[in-house]
């Protein structure tokens, strides 16, 4: 029996930086925001109140 031919290796291009490795994550957050993400550092918080307090920390650090 002849050995099976291996397909040629296709070089994998690196993903662009702006493409999220989990594209479905944003859709889930948009539908039912059980977590609130800080746009400054990407931290996930559980309530809008926590997010506000967290963002105030960023403002204090910058000021």
From TrEMBL:
C2H2-type domain segment(s): 36-58
Compositional bias per record (Pro residues), positions renumbered to this chain: 1-14
Alphabetized PROSITE patterns for the sequence: ZINC_FINGER_C2H2_1 (PS00028), ZINC_FINGER_C2H2_2 (PS50157)
Source organism superkingdom: Eukaryota
Keywords attached to this entry: Metal-binding, Zinc, Zinc-finger
Example of a GO MF term: zinc ion binding
Full protein name: ZN574 protein
Upper lineage: Eukaryota, Metazoa, Chordata, Craniata, Vertebrata
Gene that encodes it: Znf574
